[in-house]
Write a structure and sequence with these properties.
This is DUF3149 domain-containing protein. The chain is about 85% helix and about 0% strand. It has 2 helices and no strands. The longest helix is centred in the middle third of the chain and has 28 residues, at about 10-40. The relative contact order is 0.09.
Amino acid sequence: MAFWLDLMFGNAIGLLSMTVIFCTFGIMSYLMWMFIVKSAPTK
């Protein structure tokens, strides 16, 4: 576990890759939320 933490957060490249992964997850969550909201039936 310590190896993976050092690999991900120990240098700038690992930190940048984790930032990209989290930002991608956030963008995909936002797009799925917008799709659900927009496809809901109107009252």
